[in-house]
Amino acid sequence: MNAATGPVAIVGGGLIGISWSALFQAFGHDVALYEPADSARELVIGRVERLRAQLADVLPVKSVPGNIRVTGVLEDALSDACWIQENTPEDISIKRDVYSEIEKFAPPEVTIASSTSSFVWSTLSARMMEPQRLITAHPFNPPHLMPLVELYGRDVARVTAAVEFYRSCGRHPVVLKREAVGHIANRLSSALWREAVNMVAEGIADVSAIDEALVYGPGLRWSVVGAHMAYHLGGGPGGIEHYLAHLGPSQEQRWKDLGNPSLDAKTQELLIAGVRAEAAGRDISTLETQRDDGLIAAQIALRSRRP
Amino acid sequence: MNAATGPVAIVGGGLIGISWSALFQAFGHDVALYEPADSARELVIGRVERLRAQLADVLPVKSVPGNIRVTGVLEDALSDACWIQENTPEDISIKRDVYSEIEKFAPPEVTIASSTSSFVWSTLSARMMEPQRLITAHPFNPPHLMPLVELYGRDVARVTAAVEFYRSCGRHPVVLKREAVGHIANRLSSALWREAVNMVAEGIADVSAIDEALVYGPGLRWSVVGAHMAYHLGGGPGGIEHYLAHLGPSQEQRWKDLGNPSLDAKTQELLIAGVRAEAAGRDISTLETQRDDGLIAAQIALRSRRP
């Protein structure tokens, strides 16, 4: 199961499959891409090359990329694959059929990583002979440029191998403890957009103002520190504990329109422990310095591009 | 009311007042800071200087900064001010008392800009002799580094002057059409954090995984394009209309846990019209190119900083 050194099979040559192909090829993997539609197959090589060119500005790619071949025969793409990245349409019948076919041709020790955005592991794997070989490995959009990969699987060794594999290709994987529709990032995005749409519908601000407020405000901040860490640093020297004690109630008040969790004692404990683990021994002052370095660098970089 | 060329009065020398002082001074304004607490006053000059040093990496500051003087007498700080930035604690009595005092000493043509995060314009201005002279001008945290300023006021000329003034100091102001508690950005942040806390409480993922998913996923994206624009670019060549037609229903399903708006025909029209205005004649391909340039630049900048 040495994913890092063998060929990768890409199942499905749409945007996501193309993006994965560019990434894996750039990091020296040979890629075999299966795409059933003739017209789409013809476009693959050119599209993958263009994406690979963009990647070189962003990541420490290999000087010699892997090879790529494109086929309309699934068995052909799977023949010596060490890793299988599945990127078929978000249709449960299509996906289950494809897993059934893959299981005929690829031995069980080869992990099937599904790029699914909508389905959870237990739904996808329900009819498989070897469900443990499936993991969900969801990229973010646009896939060839975004570092995030969200992982879930029931086989710890496979998930660990997945973390190493995607890291070796310059991605930043995170692992879910429990499967969830939308994984993590799209749930966060959906929650935020819900309030954005609410503000548009209520006439509070127009789309541009809301988008700009995000880009020049929390978006910029969240490209450097996460939501919890931001509050940990927004509570002064007392950190997240101080934030929760003093501003927790006002957040809960605002949430009354938004949903169901409460900042009860148990949840506060989870948050505090989680932030402490994330701080990993770094004190507030150190965290603030690192955050500011990131904000400065990102702003300089962004500012130089503004038309 | 020529804010761009005159001295600025800063009322309140906490973090927000210090940050504004650094900003205005860096752009050539003389600053007069009022802070009632002796111990805090002693720290102002040093703190402002340190923040100004950070600003120089980020913004096109003037080679010769404005002067700064610190006083414990409010009337003294207001004496020749062309602009008043109020940064007192988030306590309505404190703020109303301070406006009452300011109105005694500063003529009505001088705008009072409140940095309030919690209160809306109508609450703040309720007891003023000249309520129209008040605007809310809320910075984001950390104030000396974040470009966003959220503006609301009832006097169009003053709000317009505020936009020009903050822009002249390197800020990126946005204007609300209707006052709202939390303005825009903190409403978005609160909506997102609500789901983040939900995922922690439900055991879906831990704090670190959620924060990383945000930083390496939507946070990074939202430092370049807003939430609406991201969906506009996530709908393929059909844009936001296509996105709403095909993925609107799944978003609404997910929102059932989150809140109250619906994607009815009227709301869809507002969204489509708003995105069109934001696109300002640029086509999908142009928008995608600009987005990718931003993602590349930000990632290079961020990557070079990672410990």
Topology readout:
Two copies of one chain form a homodimer.
Chain A: E1 8-11, H1 15-26, E2 31-34, H2 38-55, E3 68-71, H3 74-78, E4 83-86, H4 92-105, E5 111-114, H5 121-124, E6 134-139, E7 148-152, H6 156-168, E8 172-175, H7 185-201, H8 207-215, H9 218-222, H10 227-233, H11 239-255, H12 265-279, H13 284-303
Parallel strand pairs in A: 1-2, 1-4, 2-3, 4-5, 5-6, 7-8
Antiparallel strand pairs in A: 6-7
Describe it.
Two copies of one chain form a homodimer. Chain A has an eight-stranded mixed β-sheet with strand order 3-2-1-4-5-6-7-8. By secondary structure, the first copy, chain A, is of the alpha/beta class. Mean pLDDT of chain A is 84; it is low at 259-263. In chain A, helix 1 crosses helix 2 and helix 10 (227-233) crosses helix 11. Chain A has two domains: 8-175, NAD(P)-binding Rossmann-like Domain (Rossmann fold, 3-Layer(aba) Sandwich), CATH 3.40.50.720; 185-224 and 262-303, no CATH class. Chain A is globular. Chain A has 13 helices and eight strands.
Quick tags:
alpha/beta, 8-stranded mixed beta sheet, Rossmann fold, 307 residues, 2 domains, homodimer
Quick structural overview:
The structure is a homodimer of 307-residue chains. Helices cover 51% and strands 11% of the residues of chain A.
